[in-house]
Structures are given as C-alpha cells and as structure tokens.
C-alpha cells in the first residue's frame, strides 16, 4: 500500500509536527529539521482526528475510525491514556471529531452513532442534569429547494437557519420535560406553555404508528372554526423578531409560512 498522509497537526509550541498515515501509524517530526523522531503505534484503522493540548506542548490527542482515542506524550513517543469506544450490541463507534476545553482539563468527542463523549478530571455530577438521549425534533426533517435553489424545511417552507429553536426529544421522538427544553438556546425564558410541543401520530419505516413531535405545524387560517395554537403564535412571534433582527426586505411578513416562491434573507 502506498503511504498517504491523512491528517497533520502542529503541537502547542510548533516544535513538533504529527502526521497520520493511512498505514495506521502516527509519525512525530522535528518541525525545524524534518527529522523523524517517533512512530506512534496503536491505531488499527485510519486516523482523521489530531488535536494538540491547548497549553501543554507534550500532549497530543488522536482518534480514528477504529474507535480508539489515544493521549500521547509526543516528546517521549509514549501512550499516556487510551479509550476504546465500544457500544453495547453494536460493536465499536468510529470517532469523527475531538476538541479540548480551553483549560485543557476536558475534551469532547463525537462518534458515528451520534454520541457525545466527554472526558476529563473531577466529578460527572454536573452532567447528570441532562438526559442520556438528546435530539432536536428537526434533526431528520426532509429538506427541499426553492426556485432560487436555496434549501428550505419542507414542512414549514422556512430556511433552516431562520426557523425557531427546536424541541429536545429522545431517540424515539418523544419530547423531554419543560426543564430540559429551557436548555435549548432561545428557549431559556419561554413560558411553560410555550415549551410543550404539539404531538401527532406518524408511521415509521416498518409501518408502526408512533406518537412523535410534530412541532412547527401551521393552521390554515382560511378554514372556519380553526384557531391558531399557542405554539403557532410563538413561532410567528419568533419569526417576526428574527426578521426584524436580520433586516428582512419586506416591511410586513405574512402570519403563515412563506409560499416557497422566494427565500428568506440570509443573515
């Protein structure tokens, strides 16, 4: 196999360069002379994550598609810590990205199964206030393109970046209690009644009918006897505020979603 560099990173003080090669080795080089100093052995698949410690020039983090996360001392060429991302009943999860916290005491990783892994010193109690499963109800909503080829949310006909804050749900689409909904940026100060999403019944791919968050549905105002829901009013109000902040072209926006003929102005 012809060797190929897949990732490259300088350490904190730029004295060393670390390269990831497609033969699963990490190589540590002297950045001034180009001399090869160490081969770091441990990964069993390609590595696409190399992160330097924010202030300790000895420390480098690597992670890859083999599910391994390593902390290296690149000055000695030794392995300091190792974690294998095994997921019960599903094998290992490939690690796609990692970042250190500014103080260097923690780092977070994301994997191919949608997990956020948080490592660090101290107690994990602060993280116990959030549920294990957290998704936005809009995460897998279908998208369409308008006449200008801009992306819109299919259900609301809105540009995704202009839509109101989504609701937090579990892996089955069931909404979390209101105390968790306040964790979503933009919902911190909402009244309790605005934190209860609309629910509806949808059919899954295997034909099973389940109750899930419908969220940003709108009511046809022309239909007699139908009143807009509290959620609809909140969505319209948030959309109006967003339009005002971003300097929307039109002076007055319609109460319902756009008709898809144009696209909202981008901030």
From TrEMBL:
Pfam families: WD40. Keywords: Repeat, WD repeat. It comes from the Eukaryota. This is BRWD1 protein. GO terms for cellular component: nucleus. The keyword Repeat applies. WD repeats lie at residues 1-39, 40-82. GO terms for biological process: cytoskeleton organization; regulation of cell shape; regulation of transcription by RNA polymerase II. Residues 239-267 are annotated as: Disordered. The keyword Ion transport does not apply.
């Amino acid at each position: 196999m012809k060797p190929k560099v897949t990732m490259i990173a300088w350490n904190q003080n730029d004295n060393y360069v670390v390269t990831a090669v497609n033969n699963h080795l990490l190589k540590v080089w002297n950045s001034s002379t180009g001399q090869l100093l160490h081969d770091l052995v441990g990964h069993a698949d390609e590595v696409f994550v190399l992160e330097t410690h924010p202030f300790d020039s000895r420390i480098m983090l690597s992670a890859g598609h083999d599910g391994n996360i390593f902390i290296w001392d690149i000055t000695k060429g030794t392995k300091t810590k190792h974690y294998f991302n095994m997921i019960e009943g599903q094998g290992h999860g490939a690690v796609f990205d990692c970042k250190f916290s500014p103080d260097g005491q923690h780092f977070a990783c994301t994997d191919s199964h949608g997990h956020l892994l948080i490592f660090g010193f101290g107690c994990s109690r602060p993280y116990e206030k959030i549920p294990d499963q957290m998704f936005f109800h809009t995460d897998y909503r279908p998208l369409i393109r308008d006449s200008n080829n801009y992306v819109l949310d299919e259900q609301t006909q809105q540009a995704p970046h202009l839509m109101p804050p989504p609701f937090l749900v579990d892996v089955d689409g069931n909404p979390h209690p209101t105390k968790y909904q306040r964790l979503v940026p933009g919902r911190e100060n909402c009244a309790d009644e605005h934190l209860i999403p609309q629910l509806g019944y949808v059919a899954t791919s295997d034909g099973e009918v389940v109750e899930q968050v419908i969220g940003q549905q709108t009511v046809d105002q022309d239909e007699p006897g139908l009143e807009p829901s509290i959620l609809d009013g909140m969505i319209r109000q948030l959309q109006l505020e967003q339009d005002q902040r971003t300097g929307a072209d039109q002076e007055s926006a319609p109460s319902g979603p756009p008709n898809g003929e144009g696209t909202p102005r981008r901030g």
